[in-house]
Amino acid sequence: MDKINAADTAWMLVSTALVLLMTPALAFFYGGLVRNKNSLNTMMMSFVALGVVGVTWAIAAYSLAFSDGGPLIGSLSHLGLNGVGTEAKGTIPHVLFMAYQGTFAIITAALISGAVVERMRFGPYVLFIALWTLLVYAPVAHWVWGGGWLMSRGVLDFAGGTVVHINAGVSALVAAIVLGARKDYGRQAVLPHSVPFTLLGAGLLWFGWFGFNGGSALAANELAGLAFTNTFLAPMATLVVWTLLDYFRTGRATAVGAATGIVVGLVAVTPAAGFVSPAAALLLGAIAALPSYFAIAWRSRTRIDDSLDVFAGHGIGGLTGALLTGVLAQKIWNPAGNNGLLFGNPAQLGVQALGCLSSALYAAIMTFAILKALGLIISLRAVGRVEGVGMDVTQHGEEAYASGEGSILVPPEATFAPEGLPAFSPQVAS
Questions:
Q1: d(CA 367, CA 364)
Q2: Would you state the torsion angle of the CA atoms of residues 281, 282, 286, 292, taken in this order, to the nearest 10 degrees?
Q3: What is the reported pTM?
Protein backbone atom coordinates (compact mmCIF):
# COMPACT_ATOMS: atom_id res chain seq x y z
CA MET A 1 0.00 0.00 0.00
CA ASP A 2 1.28 3.46 -0.93
CA LYS A 3 2.41 5.65 1.97
CA ILE A 4 3.31 9.33 1.89
CA ASN A 5 6.99 10.09 2.57
CA ALA A 6 7.80 13.53 4.00
CA ALA A 7 11.17 13.91 2.24
CA ASP A 8 9.72 12.91 -1.13
CA THR A 9 6.84 15.33 -0.64
CA ALA A 10 9.20 18.18 0.23
CA TRP A 11 11.31 17.58 -2.87
CA MET A 12 8.23 17.42 -5.10
CA LEU A 13 6.86 20.66 -3.64
CA VAL A 14 10.12 22.35 -4.60
CA SER A 15 10.22 20.65 -8.02
CA THR A 16 6.66 21.73 -8.83
CA ALA A 17 7.53 25.34 -8.05
CA LEU A 18 10.73 25.08 -10.14
CA VAL A 19 8.88 23.76 -13.18
CA LEU A 20 6.18 26.42 -12.84
CA LEU A 21 8.97 29.04 -12.93
CA MET A 22 10.04 27.68 -16.32
CA THR A 23 7.03 29.21 -18.09
CA PRO A 24 7.85 32.81 -17.05
CA ALA A 25 11.47 31.96 -17.88
CA LEU A 26 10.34 30.90 -21.36
CA ALA A 27 8.53 34.24 -21.66
CA PHE A 28 11.83 36.07 -21.15
CA PHE A 29 13.72 33.71 -23.47
CA TYR A 30 11.19 34.17 -26.28
CA GLY A 31 10.40 37.81 -25.49
CA GLY A 32 13.99 38.92 -25.97
CA LEU A 33 14.21 37.31 -29.40
CA VAL A 34 11.42 39.32 -31.05
CA ARG A 35 11.09 42.98 -32.02
CA ASN A 36 10.14 45.38 -29.25
CA LYS A 37 6.69 46.07 -30.76
CA ASN A 38 5.84 42.38 -30.25
CA SER A 39 7.71 41.60 -27.05
CA LEU A 40 4.79 42.02 -24.64
CA ASN A 41 2.51 39.87 -26.80
CA THR A 42 5.20 37.18 -27.07
CA MET A 43 5.63 37.08 -23.30
CA MET A 44 1.87 37.02 -22.76
CA MET A 45 1.62 33.92 -24.96
CA SER A 46 3.63 32.12 -22.29
CA PHE A 47 1.99 33.73 -19.29
CA VAL A 48 -1.56 33.04 -20.48
CA ALA A 49 -0.73 29.32 -20.61
CA LEU A 50 -0.35 29.44 -16.83
CA GLY A 51 -4.07 30.13 -16.69
CA VAL A 52 -5.80 28.51 -19.63
CA VAL A 53 -3.70 25.32 -19.77
CA GLY A 54 -3.65 25.01 -15.98
CA VAL A 55 -7.44 25.19 -15.76
CA THR A 56 -7.88 22.83 -18.72
CA TRP A 57 -5.51 20.39 -17.02
CA ALA A 58 -7.40 20.46 -13.74
CA ILE A 59 -10.85 20.11 -15.30
CA ALA A 60 -10.28 17.34 -17.83
CA ALA A 61 -6.77 16.84 -19.27
CA TYR A 62 -5.29 15.32 -16.10
CA SER A 63 -7.99 12.67 -16.07
CA LEU A 64 -7.45 11.88 -19.76
CA ALA A 65 -3.69 11.57 -19.22
CA PHE A 66 -3.36 9.75 -15.90
CA SER A 67 -6.57 7.95 -14.97
CA ASP A 68 -7.05 4.28 -15.72
CA GLY A 69 -8.28 3.75 -19.26
CA GLY A 70 -7.32 2.05 -22.48
CA PRO A 71 -4.03 2.01 -24.38
CA LEU A 72 -4.82 5.28 -26.18
CA ILE A 73 -6.52 7.52 -23.61
CA GLY A 74 -7.46 7.62 -19.94
CA SER A 75 -10.99 7.76 -18.59
CA LEU A 76 -13.00 10.65 -17.14
CA SER A 77 -12.86 9.25 -13.62
CA HIS A 78 -10.89 12.29 -12.40
CA LEU A 79 -13.00 14.85 -14.27
CA GLY A 80 -12.99 18.10 -12.31
CA LEU A 81 -10.36 16.55 -10.01
CA ASN A 82 -12.89 14.04 -8.72
CA GLY A 83 -11.06 11.55 -6.53
CA VAL A 84 -7.86 13.61 -6.48
CA GLY A 85 -7.16 14.24 -2.80
CA THR A 86 -4.39 14.02 -0.26
CA GLU A 87 -4.19 10.23 -0.46
CA ALA A 88 -0.86 8.76 -1.51
CA LYS A 89 0.08 8.57 -5.16
CA GLY A 90 3.33 6.65 -4.89
CA THR A 91 4.97 8.37 -1.93
CA ILE A 92 3.51 11.87 -2.41
CA PRO A 93 -0.03 13.29 -2.12
CA HIS A 94 -2.19 12.75 -5.20
CA VAL A 95 -2.95 16.47 -5.45
CA LEU A 96 0.77 17.23 -5.60
CA PHE A 97 1.34 14.67 -8.35
CA MET A 98 -1.48 16.30 -10.34
CA ALA A 99 0.00 19.78 -9.84
CA TYR A 100 3.50 18.66 -10.81
CA GLN A 101 2.26 17.07 -14.02
CA GLY A 102 0.20 20.17 -14.71
CA THR A 103 3.32 22.33 -14.83
CA PHE A 104 4.60 20.10 -17.65
CA ALA A 105 1.40 20.56 -19.65
CA ILE A 106 1.61 24.34 -19.21
CA ILE A 107 5.13 24.80 -20.53
CA THR A 108 4.65 22.28 -23.36
CA ALA A 109 1.76 24.28 -24.80
CA ALA A 110 3.63 27.56 -24.28
CA LEU A 111 6.63 26.25 -26.24
CA ILE A 112 4.56 26.20 -29.45
CA SER A 113 4.06 29.96 -29.32
CA GLY A 114 7.65 30.55 -30.44
CA ALA A 115 6.75 29.38 -33.94
CA VAL A 116 3.80 31.76 -34.42
CA VAL A 117 4.87 34.94 -32.64
CA GLU A 118 4.54 38.34 -34.32
CA ARG A 119 1.50 37.26 -36.37
CA MET A 120 -0.99 34.95 -34.58
CA ARG A 121 -3.94 36.71 -32.97
CA PHE A 122 -4.13 36.28 -29.22
CA GLY A 123 -7.71 35.02 -28.92
CA PRO A 124 -7.32 32.18 -31.43
CA TYR A 125 -4.01 31.27 -29.80
CA VAL A 126 -5.71 30.87 -26.41
CA LEU A 127 -8.39 28.63 -27.93
CA PHE A 128 -5.73 26.62 -29.73
CA ILE A 129 -3.60 25.82 -26.67
CA ALA A 130 -6.68 24.78 -24.67
CA LEU A 131 -7.78 22.37 -27.41
CA TRP A 132 -4.22 21.19 -28.00
CA THR A 133 -3.79 20.34 -24.32
CA LEU A 134 -6.91 18.17 -24.41
CA LEU A 135 -6.48 16.56 -27.81
CA VAL A 136 -2.71 16.26 -28.23
CA TYR A 137 -0.83 16.59 -24.96
CA ALA A 138 -3.12 14.50 -22.76
CA PRO A 139 -3.25 11.48 -25.12
CA VAL A 140 0.52 11.39 -25.70
CA ALA A 141 1.17 11.77 -21.96
CA HIS A 142 -1.12 8.79 -21.40
CA TRP A 143 0.69 6.73 -24.06
CA VAL A 144 4.11 7.26 -22.45
CA TRP A 145 3.49 7.90 -18.73
CA GLY A 146 -0.10 7.00 -17.95
CA GLY A 147 -0.09 3.30 -18.74
CA GLY A 148 -0.73 3.61 -22.47
CA TRP A 149 0.56 1.60 -25.41
CA LEU A 150 4.04 3.16 -25.64
CA MET A 151 4.65 2.65 -21.94
CA SER A 152 3.72 -1.02 -22.29
CA ARG A 153 6.21 -1.38 -25.15
CA GLY A 154 9.05 -0.07 -22.98
CA VAL A 155 9.62 3.43 -24.39
CA LEU A 156 12.05 5.29 -22.12
CA ASP A 157 11.16 8.94 -21.59
CA PHE A 158 12.27 10.07 -18.17
CA ALA A 159 10.99 13.65 -18.23
CA GLY A 160 9.48 14.42 -21.62
CA GLY A 161 11.58 13.98 -24.75
CA THR A 162 8.55 12.66 -26.63
CA VAL A 163 5.69 13.94 -24.46
CA VAL A 164 7.02 17.50 -24.19
CA HIS A 165 9.66 18.32 -26.79
CA ILE A 166 8.89 16.25 -29.88
CA ASN A 167 5.20 16.87 -29.26
CA ALA A 168 5.63 20.65 -29.03
CA GLY A 169 8.35 20.91 -31.69
CA VAL A 170 6.40 19.11 -34.40
CA SER A 171 3.21 20.98 -33.49
CA ALA A 172 5.12 24.26 -33.73
CA LEU A 173 6.39 23.41 -37.22
CA VAL A 174 2.88 22.57 -38.41
CA ALA A 175 1.50 25.78 -36.88
CA ALA A 176 4.18 27.87 -38.60
CA ILE A 177 3.35 26.31 -41.96
CA VAL A 178 -0.43 26.67 -41.52
CA LEU A 179 -0.19 30.33 -40.50
CA GLY A 180 2.38 31.24 -43.12
CA ALA A 181 5.34 33.58 -42.85
CA ARG A 182 5.34 37.04 -41.33
CA LYS A 183 4.72 39.75 -43.90
CA ASP A 184 8.31 41.00 -43.77
CA TYR A 185 9.99 37.62 -43.34
CA GLY A 186 12.93 37.32 -45.71
CA ARG A 187 12.62 40.97 -46.79
CA GLN A 188 14.18 42.70 -43.80
CA ALA A 189 16.32 41.72 -40.84
CA VAL A 190 14.24 40.65 -37.85
CA LEU A 191 16.59 41.22 -34.93
CA PRO A 192 16.20 40.37 -31.23
CA HIS A 193 15.24 43.47 -29.27
CA SER A 194 16.83 42.32 -25.97
CA VAL A 195 19.51 39.64 -25.92
CA PRO A 196 19.91 40.12 -22.14
CA PHE A 197 16.25 39.04 -21.75
CA THR A 198 17.05 35.89 -23.70
CA LEU A 199 20.11 35.13 -21.57
CA LEU A 200 18.07 35.69 -18.41
CA GLY A 201 15.39 33.35 -19.72
CA ALA A 202 17.93 30.65 -20.57
CA GLY A 203 19.47 30.87 -17.08
CA LEU A 204 16.08 30.63 -15.38
CA LEU A 205 15.08 27.73 -17.63
CA TRP A 206 18.20 25.83 -16.58
CA PHE A 207 17.39 26.54 -12.92
CA GLY A 208 13.81 25.33 -13.31
CA TRP A 209 14.92 22.31 -15.32
CA PHE A 210 16.45 20.77 -12.20
CA GLY A 211 12.88 20.34 -11.00
CA PHE A 212 11.76 19.24 -14.45
CA ASN A 213 14.23 16.35 -14.63
CA GLY A 214 15.18 15.81 -11.00
CA GLY A 215 11.54 15.90 -9.94
CA SER A 216 10.61 13.25 -12.48
CA ALA A 217 12.06 10.68 -10.10
CA LEU A 218 8.96 11.54 -8.00
CA ALA A 219 11.08 11.04 -4.88
CA ALA A 220 14.09 12.43 -3.04
CA ASN A 221 16.33 9.50 -3.84
CA GLU A 222 19.39 8.33 -5.80
CA LEU A 223 17.52 8.57 -9.09
CA ALA A 224 16.69 12.22 -8.47
CA GLY A 225 20.38 12.81 -7.77
CA LEU A 226 21.34 11.16 -11.05
CA ALA A 227 18.82 13.15 -13.09
CA PHE A 228 19.87 16.36 -11.32
CA THR A 229 23.54 15.75 -12.10
CA ASN A 230 22.87 14.89 -15.74
CA THR A 231 20.83 18.09 -16.05
CA PHE A 232 23.87 19.90 -14.66
CA LEU A 233 26.34 18.34 -17.11
CA ALA A 234 24.68 17.86 -20.49
CA PRO A 235 23.92 21.56 -21.24
CA MET A 236 27.50 22.43 -20.38
CA ALA A 237 28.75 20.16 -23.14
CA THR A 238 26.15 21.49 -25.58
CA LEU A 239 27.13 25.06 -24.75
CA VAL A 240 30.80 24.34 -25.45
CA VAL A 241 30.15 22.60 -28.77
CA TRP A 242 27.56 25.20 -29.88
CA THR A 243 29.94 28.06 -29.11
CA LEU A 244 32.73 26.36 -31.07
CA LEU A 245 30.39 25.80 -34.03
CA ASP A 246 29.42 29.47 -33.92
CA TYR A 247 33.04 30.54 -33.73
CA PHE A 248 34.35 28.37 -36.53
CA ARG A 249 31.36 29.03 -38.80
CA THR A 250 31.06 32.80 -38.33
CA GLY A 251 34.16 33.88 -36.42
CA ARG A 252 32.01 35.06 -33.50
CA ALA A 253 30.66 33.39 -30.39
CA THR A 254 27.15 34.84 -30.14
CA ALA A 255 25.14 35.29 -26.94
CA VAL A 256 21.94 34.11 -28.65
CA GLY A 257 23.84 31.02 -29.75
CA ALA A 258 25.02 30.35 -26.20
CA ALA A 259 21.49 30.68 -24.82
CA THR A 260 20.14 28.41 -27.56
CA GLY A 261 22.85 25.83 -26.94
CA ILE A 262 21.98 25.66 -23.25
CA VAL A 263 18.31 25.07 -24.01
CA VAL A 264 19.07 22.43 -26.65
CA GLY A 265 21.27 20.57 -24.16
CA LEU A 266 18.49 20.65 -21.58
CA VAL A 267 15.99 19.39 -24.13
CA ALA A 268 18.22 16.55 -25.28
CA VAL A 269 19.04 15.24 -21.81
CA THR A 270 15.40 15.32 -20.67
CA PRO A 271 14.38 11.83 -21.90
CA ALA A 272 17.71 10.33 -20.79
CA ALA A 273 18.25 12.07 -17.46
CA GLY A 274 17.31 9.12 -15.27
CA PHE A 275 18.63 6.33 -17.50
CA VAL A 276 22.23 7.23 -18.41
CA SER A 277 25.51 7.79 -16.59
CA PRO A 278 26.92 11.28 -16.04
CA ALA A 279 29.68 10.55 -18.56
CA ALA A 280 27.03 9.54 -21.10
CA ALA A 281 25.13 12.75 -20.35
CA LEU A 282 28.21 14.78 -21.29
CA LEU A 283 28.53 12.84 -24.55
CA LEU A 284 24.81 13.20 -25.27
CA GLY A 285 24.96 16.96 -24.70
CA ALA A 286 27.94 17.36 -27.02
CA ILE A 287 26.33 15.32 -29.81
CA ALA A 288 22.97 17.09 -29.48
CA ALA A 289 24.45 20.44 -30.50
CA LEU A 290 25.14 19.27 -34.05
CA PRO A 291 21.69 18.37 -35.50
CA SER A 292 19.91 21.32 -33.89
CA TYR A 293 22.59 23.82 -34.91
CA PHE A 294 22.53 22.79 -38.55
CA ALA A 295 18.73 22.49 -38.57
CA ILE A 296 18.55 26.17 -37.58
CA ALA A 297 21.08 27.09 -40.26
CA TRP A 298 19.06 25.17 -42.87
CA ARG A 299 15.67 26.55 -41.79
CA SER A 300 16.86 30.13 -42.08
CA ARG A 301 17.41 29.58 -45.81
CA THR A 302 13.85 28.36 -46.39
CA ARG A 303 10.43 30.03 -46.46
CA ILE A 304 9.39 28.19 -43.30
CA ASP A 305 8.92 30.92 -40.70
CA ASP A 306 9.28 28.95 -37.47
CA SER A 307 10.04 32.29 -35.90
CA LEU A 308 12.12 31.20 -32.90
CA ASP A 309 13.18 27.77 -34.23
CA VAL A 310 11.02 25.72 -31.90
CA PHE A 311 11.22 22.67 -34.17
CA ALA A 312 15.01 22.80 -34.52
CA GLY A 313 15.54 23.35 -30.80
CA HIS A 314 12.82 21.25 -29.23
CA GLY A 315 11.70 18.89 -31.98
CA ILE A 316 15.17 17.94 -33.23
CA GLY A 317 16.70 18.21 -29.75
CA GLY A 318 14.01 15.97 -28.28
CA LEU A 319 14.39 13.47 -31.12
CA THR A 320 18.18 13.39 -30.64
CA GLY A 321 17.87 12.86 -26.91
CA ALA A 322 15.18 10.19 -27.20
CA LEU A 323 17.16 8.17 -29.75
CA LEU A 324 20.42 8.52 -27.82
CA THR A 325 18.59 7.24 -24.74
CA GLY A 326 18.13 4.03 -26.73
CA VAL A 327 21.90 3.96 -27.30
CA LEU A 328 23.31 5.07 -23.93
CA ALA A 329 20.82 3.81 -21.30
CA GLN A 330 22.10 1.40 -18.64
CA LYS A 331 20.06 -0.62 -16.14
CA ILE A 332 22.93 -0.32 -13.68
CA TRP A 333 21.94 3.35 -13.22
CA ASN A 334 18.18 2.72 -13.21
CA PRO A 335 16.92 -0.85 -12.77
CA ALA A 336 13.43 0.27 -13.86
CA GLY A 337 14.83 1.26 -17.26
CA ASN A 338 16.65 -0.84 -19.83
CA ASN A 339 20.02 -1.20 -21.49
CA GLY A 340 20.61 0.59 -24.76
CA LEU A 341 22.42 -0.28 -27.98
CA LEU A 342 25.92 0.16 -26.55
CA PHE A 343 25.12 -2.12 -23.64
CA GLY A 344 23.82 -5.17 -25.42
CA ASN A 345 20.23 -4.23 -26.28
CA PRO A 346 19.92 -2.80 -29.82
CA ALA A 347 16.15 -3.38 -29.74
CA GLN A 348 15.78 -0.42 -27.36
CA LEU A 349 16.79 1.96 -30.13
CA GLY A 350 13.95 0.62 -32.26
CA VAL A 351 11.51 1.07 -29.38
CA GLN A 352 12.67 4.67 -28.95
CA ALA A 353 12.26 5.31 -32.68
CA LEU A 354 8.69 3.97 -32.47
CA GLY A 355 7.92 6.41 -29.66
CA CYS A 356 9.39 9.33 -31.58
CA LEU A 357 7.65 8.53 -34.86
CA SER A 358 4.22 7.84 -33.38
CA SER A 359 4.14 10.93 -31.17
CA ALA A 360 5.43 13.16 -34.00
CA LEU A 361 2.89 11.83 -36.49
CA TYR A 362 -0.01 12.17 -34.07
CA ALA A 363 1.02 15.70 -33.04
CA ALA A 364 1.33 16.80 -36.69
CA ILE A 365 -2.05 15.45 -37.76
CA MET A 366 -3.96 16.72 -34.74
CA THR A 367 -2.34 20.16 -34.71
CA PHE A 368 -3.16 20.60 -38.39
CA ALA A 369 -6.76 19.53 -37.76
CA ILE A 370 -7.22 21.85 -34.75
CA LEU A 371 -5.83 24.89 -36.58
CA LYS A 372 -7.83 24.23 -39.73
CA ALA A 373 -11.02 23.76 -37.71
CA LEU A 374 -10.42 27.00 -35.80
CA GLY A 375 -9.61 28.74 -39.08
CA LEU A 376 -13.11 27.95 -40.35
CA ILE A 377 -14.73 30.00 -37.61
CA ILE A 378 -12.16 32.65 -36.70
CA SER A 379 -9.20 34.38 -38.32
CA LEU A 380 -5.99 32.91 -36.93
CA ARG A 381 -3.50 35.58 -37.90
CA ALA A 382 -3.37 39.32 -37.93
CA VAL A 383 -3.72 41.24 -41.17
CA GLY A 384 -0.65 42.93 -42.60
CA ARG A 385 -1.29 46.40 -41.19
CA VAL A 386 -1.81 44.97 -37.71
CA GLU A 387 1.54 43.20 -37.98
CA GLY A 388 3.05 46.51 -39.01
CA VAL A 389 1.76 48.35 -35.96
CA GLY A 390 2.84 45.48 -33.73
CA MET A 391 1.01 42.87 -31.70
CA ASP A 392 1.50 44.59 -28.34
CA VAL A 393 -0.77 47.55 -29.03
CA THR A 394 -3.25 45.74 -31.27
CA GLN A 395 -3.76 42.65 -29.12
CA HIS A 396 -3.31 44.06 -25.62
CA GLY A 397 -3.65 47.84 -25.81
CA GLU A 398 -0.27 48.19 -24.13
CA GLU A 399 3.35 48.83 -24.97
CA ALA A 400 6.29 46.96 -23.49
CA TYR A 401 8.33 50.17 -23.58
CA ALA A 402 6.63 53.52 -23.17
CA SER A 403 9.00 56.42 -23.75
CA GLY A 404 6.90 59.26 -22.36
CA GLU A 405 6.31 61.69 -25.18
CA GLY A 406 5.21 59.88 -28.29
CA SER A 407 3.89 56.78 -26.53
CA ILE A 408 0.53 55.49 -27.67
CA LEU A 409 -2.50 56.08 -25.47
CA VAL A 410 -5.17 53.40 -25.55
CA PRO A 411 -8.29 54.73 -23.78
CA PRO A 412 -10.15 52.06 -21.75
CA GLU A 413 -13.41 52.86 -23.55
CA ALA A 414 -11.85 52.40 -27.00
CA THR A 415 -13.55 49.94 -29.31
CA PHE A 416 -11.57 47.61 -31.52
CA ALA A 417 -12.04 46.90 -35.18
CA PRO A 418 -12.45 43.26 -36.29
CA GLU A 419 -8.91 43.27 -37.66
CA GLY A 420 -7.63 43.95 -34.19
CA LEU A 421 -6.57 47.61 -34.70
CA PRO A 422 -7.90 50.20 -32.26
CA ALA A 423 -10.78 52.13 -33.81
CA PHE A 424 -9.26 55.49 -32.91
CA SER A 425 -6.26 57.56 -33.85
CA PRO A 426 -3.10 57.32 -31.72
CA GLN A 427 -2.61 60.36 -29.48
CA VAL A 428 0.57 61.91 -28.18
CA ALA A 429 1.06 61.44 -24.46
CA SER A 430 0.83 64.66 -22.53
A1: 5
A2: 30
A3: 0.93
